Every structure is written in C-alpha cells, then in structure tokens.
C-alpha cells in the first residue's frame, strides 16, 4: 500500500508526497520532509510505516502534532482522509487506490515460467523410451501392398535393459482373500419348493399303492 500526504496549507499547497519509508518531519536540513516555518521544530515528528500502515509520532515539538485537530502525545495510526497537522501546516492523508487491487499477472506458458514436476518412470517406460523409435520414424519408408499390408518390415532390436532393473524380480502378489459364497434367498426358496413337491408326490404315490393293495386283497 502506497501512502501519500497532500499539503493543504503553506507554499507547497496541493503538492503530494509519497511515504515509502520512515520519514523525519521538521525544519532541520537533514529532515526527510523539511518544512520551512518558524513554528515547526527542527525535529518535529516522524512518519512510520508498520505492516503497510502509516503512523505518526510527535517528537516533543514545541507547537505540537495534530490528527483531525486533536494534539497527540503518542503514536497514532493514520487513515485515508485524516487531517495531519505539524504546528500550523496541514496535510491530508491519502493512499493510492490502485494499490488496493491485486494486479493480474499475465498467464505465461509453462515452458517459460516453470517446468512440470518430473514423474519417475517405470522400467517398461524406460525400455520403451530407449528402444522404440518415434511414430514418424517408423512410418517413413514403409511400403504397402495392394491390400494395404506393410512390406519389408524388419523386426526392431529389443531395447536395452536400464541399469538397476532386475528382470528376474517377481513382484509380490497380494494375498487373495477367499470370500464366502452366500447362497441367495431365491435359491433357498427354490430348494424348499422342490423338496415340498417331492414329499407331496411321495405321499400321493403311497396312497395310490394302498388303494390298489386294498382292492387286490378285498
């Protein structure tokens, strides 16, 4: 945030002064803001920047420092629109409006700003990168038959095995967990109906045999 004070009285009326660092206000030649007035002390006051806030401190001046017409005796935080007075010289406190809005940074291609994080490649990807030619290179010079089949294609050499890759290493397979097969309720109902039908047919057959036996021995 850029703070400014604008002179309201005196020879510099209308002039704006940017406060970009701590400033000494007074009549002394080494003052950052030198005010040519007999009412202003040699080291009158100090303007301080703290956490992007503007503060004013009176340095035991003879004619005092005022904020909004009130004399101060300790550090006071200033706000936009406050009236700041050193003896009889008045200023208006301002801050740049454009600094309140975050600037929109233009979007740049990743190649010009930052590179993508490199992701470790697997052994298969490393072998593919080292041994497989580019697609355009594989297509160049390939002759096709009338049926569209490629001719005179040589078998590429196997890719070299990257260093540190153990082709005999067997990755551990996760232990298989047996899942108990739960018989569905529908299958249970069908089985019960089947058993009931068999039982009923058996009873009917026994009754028929009993009737035949009774008729035979009658």
TrEMBL record:
<feature type="domain" description="FHA">
    <location>
        <begin position="23"/>
        <end position="72"/>
    </location>
</feature>
<dbReference type="Pfam" id="PF00498">
    <property type="entry name" value="FHA"/>
</dbReference>
<keyword id="KW-0812">Transmembrane</keyword>
<dbReference type="InterPro" id="IPR008984">
    <property type="entry name" value="SMAD_FHA_dom_sf"/>
</dbReference>
<keyword id="KW-0472">Membrane</keyword>
<feature type="transmembrane region" description="Helical">
    <location>
        <begin position="198"/>
        <end position="217"/>
    </location>
</feature>
<keyword id="KW-1133">Transmembrane helix</keyword>
<protein>
    <submittedName>
        <fullName>FHA domain-containing protein</fullName>
    </submittedName>
</protein>
<dbReference type="InterPro" id="IPR000253">
    <property type="entry name" value="FHA_dom"/>
</dbReference>
<dbReference type="InterPro" id="IPR050923">
    <property type="entry name" value="Cell_Proc_Reg/RNA_Proc"/>
</dbReference>
């Amino acid at each position: 945030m850029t703070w400014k004070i604008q002179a309201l009285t005196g020879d510099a009326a209308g002039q704006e002064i940017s406060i970009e660092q701590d400033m000494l206000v007074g009549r002394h030649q080494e003052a950052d803001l030198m005010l040519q007035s007999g009412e202003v002390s040699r080291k009158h006051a100090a303007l301080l920047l703290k956490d992007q806030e503007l503060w004013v401190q009176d340095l035991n001046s003879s004619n005092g420092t005022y904020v909004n017409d009130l004399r101060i005796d300790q550090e006071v935080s200033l706000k936009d629109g406050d009236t700041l007075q050193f003896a009889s010289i008045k200023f208006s406190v301002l801050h740049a409006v454009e600094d309140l809005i975050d600037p929109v940074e233009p979007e740049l291609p990743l190649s010009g700003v930052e590179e993508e994080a490199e992701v470790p490649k697997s052994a298969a990807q490393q072998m593919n990168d080292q041994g497989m030619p580019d697609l355009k290179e594989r297509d160049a010079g390939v002759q096709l038959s009338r049926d569209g089949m490629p001719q005179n294609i040589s078998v590429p050499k196997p890719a070299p095995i990257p260093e540190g890759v153990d082709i005999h290493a067997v990755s551990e397979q996760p232990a298989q967990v047996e899942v108990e097969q739960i018989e569905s309720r529908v299958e249970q109902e069908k089985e019960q109906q089947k058993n009931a039908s068999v039982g009923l047919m058996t009873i009917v057959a026994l009754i028929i045999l009993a009737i035949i036996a009774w008729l035979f021995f009658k």
